[in-house]
Amino acid sequence: MAIRLGMEAKLYYKTGGQAGGGAWTELANTRDVTLNLETGEADVTTRANSGWRATVATLKEATVEFEMVWDTADTGFTAIKDAYLGNDPIGLQVRDGAGGQGLQADFMITQFSRSEPLEEAITVSVTAKVTYSTTPPSWLAGA
Predict the structure, then answer these.
(1) Contacts (Cβ under 8 Å, ≥6 apart) of 30
(2) pTM for the complete prediction?
(3) Domain 10-137: CATH architecture, name and number where available
(4) Are strands 25-26 and 31-43 parallel, antiparallel or unpaired?
(5) Contact 105/19 with Cβ under 8 angstroms?
(6) Domain edges within the chain
(7) pLDDT by residue (tens digit) across 82-133?
(8) What is the C-alpha separation between 32 and 120, in angstroms, rounded?
């Protein structure tokens, strides 16, 4: 059994989206990353189902949520902030480790909320959702 700890997981970004120039860069200033994968549903119940509701999967949806320490000197922080402020797509890879498996897609940053607790570092809560792109989302198989 290959158990992975959250601290081993990796989040990468690429400005300009998946097809943008340059390399994927680790977004190391993150904590508590959550990859939400959901599928819509269509009701296909008929009388032939003998009283059972029948459902088929429709469109998939992906959301990535994470926190970052508010660090304006960090290039990853700045890339996320700029993507939010400019309504620009940003490529993200959410992997279970270096070279591991996970989702790769172009995202829009839909939430960039700052928290200022009295005795803690200022943080920002980020939500990213898959956006329109000529490069569709894909699942990276990993090593």
Answers:
(1) 11, 66, 67, 68
(2) 0.91
(3) Irregular (4.10)
(4) unpaired
(5) no
(6) 10-137
(7) 999 999 999 999 999 999 999 999 999 999 999 999 999 999 999 999 999 9
(8) 16
How many other CB atoms are there within 10 angstroms of residue 14's CB atom?
A: 21
The answer for residues whose C-beta is within 8 angstroms of residue 69's C-beta and 6 or more apart is 29, 77, 121, 122, 123
- Token code pair at residue 141: 């198989």
The DSSP secondary-structure symbol of 47 reads G
Q: 127 in helix, strand or coil?
A: strand
The answer for residues whose C-beta is within 8 angstroms of residue 51's C-beta and 6 or more apart is: none
Question: Which DSSP symbol is given to 49?
Answer: G
Q: Number of C-alpha atoms within 13 angstroms, CB side, residue 44?
A: 8
DSSP letters of 72-118? Answer: TT-HHHHHHHHHHHHT--EEEEEESSTT--EEEEEEEEEEEEEE--T
